[in-house]
Task: structure prediction
Amino acid sequence: MKLRIVFQSLLVLLLMAVVIPCFADDDDHSWRFWKGERSHGDVAAVNNTLYKKECGECHFAYQPGLLPSASWQKIMTGLNNHFGDNAELDPEDAKSILSYLQLNAADVVGSKFAGWARGTAPLRITEMSKFRHEHDELPRAILSKNSQVKSLSNCIACHTGADAGSFDENQIKIPGIGRWDD
Result:
């Protein structure tokens, strides 16, 4: 009888050691495991060559699943003043790219980033409160004074899986600093 109680107690402790960290994780990565969601590949990788060529020439070609459809509409209709630059495209190319972005937008494909916008249409991923929360532990000097990073909008500088659509915190490596663990 005592052996059975000891065994049951050990089993309970073992389960607690596995389950409790899943609920304690600030970024919900372990919780996603328990819900059956994947922890890597937060959004689909960019698979449109025209978008990669036209937009990725100047900056990281952000995955459409990072912003809602309305955001992509606002961005693509304002290319004449695209964050201070003229990024106008041939009208047919712009139409094709907008179609790709909207068909794969966060609110259309149901990516976790759809909830980050909370019914708004931000022009920048960095404007979303959840994004700011996820990055609030980073001292700004790590970014602004680091020539390889410069700003939070340079996802690929630190997120080693960003090209593949993975923004998992276990794949963060800040240039000049190394692996980041919150």
Remarks:
- Residues 49-179 form one domain.
- Strands lie at 173-174, 178-179.
- The two ends are 44 Å apart (CA to CA).
- The longest helix spans residues 2-24.
